[in-house]
Structures are given as C-alpha cells and as structure tokens.
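Re: [help] complex structure
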Amino acid sequence: MTRRVALITGGMGGIGTAVCKKLGRANANLVVANCLPGYEHKATWLAAMKKEGFEVHAAEGDVSDFESTAAMVRKIESEIGPVDILVNNAGVVRDNMLKKMVLSEWMAVINSNLSSVFNVTKNVIDGMTERGWGRVVNMSSVNGQRGQFGQTNYSAAKAGVHGFAKALAQEVIRKGVTVNSVSPGYVETDMVKSIRKDVLEKLIAGIPIGRLAQPEEIASLVAFLTSEEAGYITGANIAINGGMYMT
Amino acid sequence: MAQQRIAVVTGGMGGLGESISTKMADAGYRVVVTYSPSNTKWKGWIDEMKGRGYSFGAYPVDVADFDDTAAKVTQIQKEMGAIDILVNNAGITRDMTFKKMTKADWDAVMHTNLDSCFNMTKQVMDGMVERQWGRVINVSSVNGQKGAFGQTNYSAAKAGIHGFTKALALEVAKKGVTINTISPGYIGTKMVTAIPKEILDSKILPQIPLGRLGKPDEVAGLIIYLCSEEAAFVTGANISINGGQHMY
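Output below.
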C-alpha cells in the first residue's frame, strides 16, 4: 500500500491530535501536523506523540495567511513529500452577539476558519489532481448547519466551508479527488471542558445521546472518508452530533 | 470485537444486499440474510456462498407483512441469537409517472420500502435498548433526496425512511442505539449493470459527476463504518454516497 502524506491543519489541538493518531495508524500514513509559527507547545506535543509511538512531523504556518501557507506546503513537499490527504481542521472562535461584534472578530473567524480552507487547499490540489488521487476533509460544525446564538461569524464560516466543498468536489471529481465536510456536534476537547460546569451540564442535556463526542470518534469518521473505499463519497456533509441536529 | 455481533440484512441476497452481507461477514459479523418468500433462487445463492466460504443464516421474510416479520424475527433470535444490527435494505421499484400510477403501484412500494422499516425495526428495537447497544442502518436513495421522474412512490418511501430514522434516533439516543440513513446514488448492482450500455452511457452516467457507478462494496464499507463502536456519536444522519450526483 502506498504511504500517503496527510496534512492536518490545527493538528495539535484536541480534535487535530486525535486525527493525527488515527490517520497515522490507518494505512500507515505519514502525518504532518500544522501549527502556528512559534507555537509554544510544539516540542511538548511532538515529544508526547513520539512517546506514544507516533511518528508525526510538524509544519509551522499561519493558514489564515496565503503566503505563509504556500511556504509551509513547499517545505512539506520537499522534506516529506506531496500532500495526498488534507484535513482542514484549524479554527478559532470569537463569540459575540452581532450587536457587539467588531469587524476584527468577524475577520479573524472568517480568515482562520474559511479563507484558510482556500489557502491550504489551493496549494495542494494541483498535485492531487495531477497524481490522480486525493482526499480533502473540511471540518465544519453543527453550528454551521443550524446557526448558533453569538456565532454569526463562526456559523457563517462553517457553513461556507461546505459550500466550498460542494463546488470543489465537482471541479476535481474526475481526477480521483474527493472533497467532503464533517460536521461535529460538541466534542470533549479542552476548549469544551473549560466551559463552566453548570453551563456544560445544560449543554449536554441538549444532546439527545446525553454526552459529548470523544475526539477519537471524529477522527474515525475522518479516517473513513480518507480511505480508498470512500471514493464514491464526495460533496457530502456528514453529521456526527449525537442526534443534536438532523437534516 | 468483544463478542460476535449478529447482523440482519433484509434483501440480503440482492445486488447490494450480497455485498453488504459478504463484507459484513468479512468484517467479523455473524450475518443473517432475509429474502423474499417469492425468491425461488435462494438455495442456489446459499450454495454459491458456501462455495465462497460464507455460511449465512437465511430466512424467508415478507418484510411488508408485520405478522411475518414478528414470527420470523422471533425464530431468528431463537436460532441465531439476539440481533445487534439491522440493515433495512430490502426494496422494490414500480416506476411510472404519477399520471399512470395505480394505487397498487403506490402501495407495493410503500409496504416493501417504508412499512418494512417499521415492521423489522419494531421486532428488534426493544432488545437493542435493553442490551444498550444497537445499530440500525436504513438504506434510502439519492432519489429520496432529490426526487426522480417516474418515482413518486419510490421517492416518497425513500424520503420517508429518513423521517423515521430521525424520529427513532431521538427516542433511543440515550440507549446506546444509533439509527442512520444512507443514500446511495447509482450503484453497479446486477440490476443496474443489466441496463443496456447505450442507455447507461447516454442517460445515467452523465448524471454522475464522478463518471462511474458506485461499487456495492463501497456502500458496504459505509455500512460497516456505521456499525463500528467509534460511530456511536453518528445518529439521525443521512449519509450520501453518490459520486457527486446530489449535494446539499
């Protein structure tokens, strides 16, 4: 089996780490975890991964910046190899009601969650179509599907991610490249665990399945979508939300 | 897997059903197929599968008939064990424009494609809930999502399936049971590949951006993913596998 190179943006976060591990195991992919330039926990994260037996490379780059992303991808290509699997996972939140939201909060979320998808994909897609094989998985969100109070920016960016997936899926469909979105509900990452206990309890009560998702569950779905067998699934948006929102 | 899960695949000998059954068996499940009581070729199929190294439980079940599903599922659980996974795959078509469609054409498709989900699921759900583990996968269709000319009955039944999925998913979400729908596009089953090449090339393939039919094994792969332990947070979802034919 070919050893594919998988790039996970925001690869050192809660979901990103689980995706790195899962893709590393699946088909022995060569995994590259992206992080921001100068990310303070990079060395610790790499050491922890190594200790657990995962050979993961780190790639510093600001995916909200086109030039920084282009340089990062060139470096990955020359040092590790061309990217076959891209998981657009990097994202930030700047929650605020629209009434109070400032332009910088809007721009930060659009740039990091949506324009990043353009920036990274643009730099790897030609290689995928030339080689006749590729997988792009965009991390969307239940809040992109249903909207969320205080998240006009995040909901817009995450819904936008799937518009991008549907359009690009059609453009590259005959070249062996699939483009899909995954829309998780609430996942038990450090970010979610830091929510005040009573608020978190109320949040969980709103999830029909009665618990948060584990990052590994999201990672498994991503791994399935990047498999050979998932080649007929493209332009799809797959909900993994414990019954929270059904379309 | 800790213990061997038992999976029932309705219409398990059909074009898609056969791939689902064999791939699930390959994945380690104990697979029981149901087939239509009017199917005269069941014995030959069992023998052919034996030749390929598969030993399936096989039961004639009229999935459109509640009493028959009740009796047969009782028998299956007595002879094979408790059912952990149900793949509601059985289905028929009675295509024609609404103008010409008779009540019989409508009823046949409703009974076999939609009522069957109630009938079969009803027999296994209490057990799944009691044991706190279960997977139901309802096989819908791209034509249930987008509608298809000449298929008011089929499109209605297949869309209805996902309504059923969403409601039941909510009812059993806390019980370790997930209910999901998959919506395949055109899959290269014997039925579809039997279509004259000329029509396939001029009428069907141009609708599929990917430019090819799906493989039955690709659909089976999706079902196996949904049956896995790690798919426990996926419930009430409708997953498209259609080569880009319909995106929403």
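The interface with chain B takes residues 166, 169-170, 173-174, 185, 208-210, 213-214, 216-218, 220-221, 224, 227, 229-243, 246-247 of chain A (CB under 8 Å).
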